[in-house]
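Re: that chain you flagged

S.,

Sorry for the slow reply, it's been a week of failed gels. I finally had a moment to sit down with the sequence you sent. For the record, here it is as I used it:
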Amino acid sequence: MAIVDRREIEFDRDAVRLALEWSPQAAQAFGLPPLTPDGVRCKPAEGLVEVTYGRLTTTRVFMLHAEALGAILIAYCNRAGMPMPRNADKAVRIESGHVVVVFTLRMAHAPHPEVPENPVHRVPDAVRAWAWVESDT
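Prediction finished late last night. Pasting the structure tokens below so you have them in one place:
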């Protein structure tokens, strides 16, 4: 018997941009400049996110691989206090309009509950009648 716990955190492009803005040290560790990003564009076919800095004539574009972006987003989530399973497998999926961080925790055996179930203090009401509901189609 196995249990699989799968969770997803979805970031739209603006949320990715803000996470990069609010994580300047992590962003610099992956080669991004110490500037506020102006835009983010997802490139799902290449597994990349395009991060744009500056406007008009001073525009600079950097490509960030899904793995690097995942590390930045997970670090951001930790600092923001978002609950994430530590021992989970982590993956990043880049889609056309957003980025998804996926956590998958596989438990080979069902764990025993830490707290026993409380006893039932009243008898539940009995089922009074069963009825079949037929559709009109």
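What I noticed first: The first strand starts at residue 3 and ends at 12.

Talk soon,
D.
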